[in-house]
Amino acid sequence: MAADAYARLAETLERLADVVAPKELLEVLDVEDLSARTGIPRKDVILLIEGKQVERTSVTDRVRRRLVFLRKTRRRGDGRSYSMQDFAEIVGVTRQTMTSWSTTGVPSIEAADQIRRHFDLPAGFMTADEPEALNEVLLAKLHELEAQNTPLPMPPELRRLALRSPEVAAKTMQLVAAWAMEITSTTDTDAADGSSAKGQP
Questions:
Q1: What integer is the mean pLDDT of 56-79?
Q2: I want to staple 177 with a disulfide (CB 3.0 to 4.6 A). Which of 12, 23, 66, 154 is the partner?
Q3: pTM of the model
């Protein structure tokens, strides 16, 4: 399961690298924002973007760590950090129960989901493993960048080819796209002519 998550993340990172080339991913991506949106410590976000693996954690450990992460990184309306009492009120339990969850136990799925929704976080924020959580956020970023950076409808393989070199200009990309369209239309026409010829006596 973890191997699959890393494989999916690697594929997303490769596609992102093609879109942002010639820049490096860490030049373009906002590591602090990725950390805040996934609950993954900044240093682990960097390791994952660099294609490395991070320490494996159990679901219980992830929930506890992300509770601590939210307390450290989120602020109330008055600018103060959230206390265990604040979390307890969000979930509807006692402060003692909340403290126990953060140290030796784990909140129920319903309680964890209430906390997640209070902070307007993605569905898997409390439980998703690190590569899976980061991949979800990066996929959204990939789609956003692809929408911004694609001036012409062209197959992703050709776009990646065009972006391989830092010197490739937008004009060159347009020529590559036009050439591909010409080849495709010629092939389609030839195929149609061939089928017509076969139908003739």
A1: 88
A2: 154
A3: 0.68
